[in-house]
Amino acid sequence: MFTAMADYSKWTKEQLIERLKALDAGSDSGPLAPVKELQELKAALDAHSIVAITDARGRITYANDKFCELSKYSRDELIGQDHRIINSGYHPREFFNHLWTTIGSGNVWKGDLRNRAKDGSIYWVATTIFPFLDANGKPQQYIAIRTDITQRKRDEEQLEQLAQSLAEKNKELETIVYVASHDLRSPLVNIQGFSKELSVSCRHLQSLLGSANGFQSSPELRMILNEDIPEALDFIQAGVTKIDILLSGFLRFSRLGRAALKIEPLDMSGMLASIAQTMEFQLKQSGAILRLNPLPECLGDAILVNQVFSNLLDNALKYLDPNRAGVIEVSGNVENGRSNFRVKDNGIGIAAEHQAKVFEIFHRLNPKTTSGEGLGLTIAQRILERQDGKIWVESKPDSGSSFFVSLPATVRNKE
User: Fold this and answer.
1) 413 near 334, Cβ under 8 Å?
2) pLDDT grade, residue 390 (50/70/90)?
3) What pLDDT, on the 0 to 100 scale, is given for residue 2?
4) Which range (142-156, 211-225, 229-243) has the least confidence?
5) Contact of 141 with 61, CB cutoff 8 Å
6) Helix (H) or strand (E) holding 177
7) Fewer CB atoms near the end CB (10 Å): N or C, the chain?
8) Looking at beta carbons, which pairs linking 240-247 to residues 24 or more positions away fall under 8 Å?
9) Could you tell me the end-to-end alpha-carbon distance of the chain, in angstroms, rounded to an integer?
């Protein structure tokens, strides 16, 4: 006696397929007689998915309503045909050879298929083809269960096109920035040079007129030569210096996008030891202590990764707290296929409102008391993004900062 019927309407497509497998293998008679249960499974699949059944030669023997609706063919037009009737010509011959080899061997095949409907429209289906085997283990028919994923594929294609468009725009922008920055340097040098020359001439003129009665008796002339012109020249020189710094930063930033990467395993302990050696004078001068823990290897471009950590250590020294001895510590670990590094200091820290901005171009924490372009962290972020890496910060004012860098781990580290 058979028990009550299972509620297949609540089963997923994968559960229905697994049940079909069990019935085909004869491993489980189930809650109903096999024929009855197959009928119930078929009804559930028809409501759930696009379903087609073919004979051993691939001729369609059954097509449900969803198949007819999506393909735009009537059931009579589909029965007796093979699936070449909806072949879009998108997939190569090797693709279908692999499909038939798989199901012909009695194995389940899964994949995405691009088909063409009767009206010429294209649609995509996520497909599972399950072979039913005879007593000799040979396929006697196949059931194909499909889900319409056309919209998903369209969305993926649009995202891919958008990513390509953004990459092209980014490349154009980098070229514009490079050309503009490079070409602006020439007139800037002229302004800088001639303003200095004018300043020298102004002092010479002051000397020549210093003993002249007209000069001595004219307060207006003295103000022009002694105050107005020198002040104007100082403003010009300050503006030129700032523009020069900005243009240098733009050039450095634009070059990043054109630099070729050489990704290789990196000995990070050796790299940080080398960086520490080059910074030995700065460390002694500041009185800070640098602690280097054993670090894992990672994958990256040696020159650019060196630039990132040199910048992080330089920043740690730059923003030490004058009220306590500076301590900088570098540590690392491997987790989930990533090599993670931490550069920790006990410096002045970063206020919460500034933490989101530290990676913005030309942002400087203390522009009046520290030198630089405000590009170091922006460049570090760009360098890491190009190498499947990332950087972030955790900090509290008066407690110090921790900058984290994550890069792909080497195969050896992953094992």
Assistant:
1) yes
2) very high
3) 35
4) 211-225
5) yes
6) helix 150-209
7) N
8) 240/188, 240/191, 240/192, 240/195, 241/192, 243/184, 243/188, 244/185, 244/188, 244/192, 245/373, 246/362, 246/373, 247/181, 247/184, 247/185, 247/188
9) 54
Cα Rg of the chain, angstroms? 36
**Residue pair 132/140 in contact by the 8 Å Cβ criterion:** yes
Q: How far apart are CA 247 and CA 112, in angstroms?
A: 50
Query: How far apart, in whole angstroms, are the C-alpha atoms of residue 362 and residue 29?
Result: 72
Which residues, other chains included, contact 51 with Cβ-Cβ below 8 Å and sequence gap of 6+?
Answer: 42, 45, 62, 63, 64, 66, 67, 143, 144, 145, 146
State residue 94's pLDDT score: 95
Comparing C-alpha atoms, which of 109, 142, 103 is closest to residue 128?
109
Contact present, 103 and 96 (Cβ < 8 Å): no
Distance CA 362, CA 5 (A): 69
DSSP conformation class of 5: P
User: What are residue 342's phi and psi, to 5 degrees?
Assistant: -130, 125
- As given in the structure block, the two tokens for residue 88 are 């879009």
Least confident of 30-44, 242-256, 284-298: 30-44
Residue 220 tokens read as 């207006």
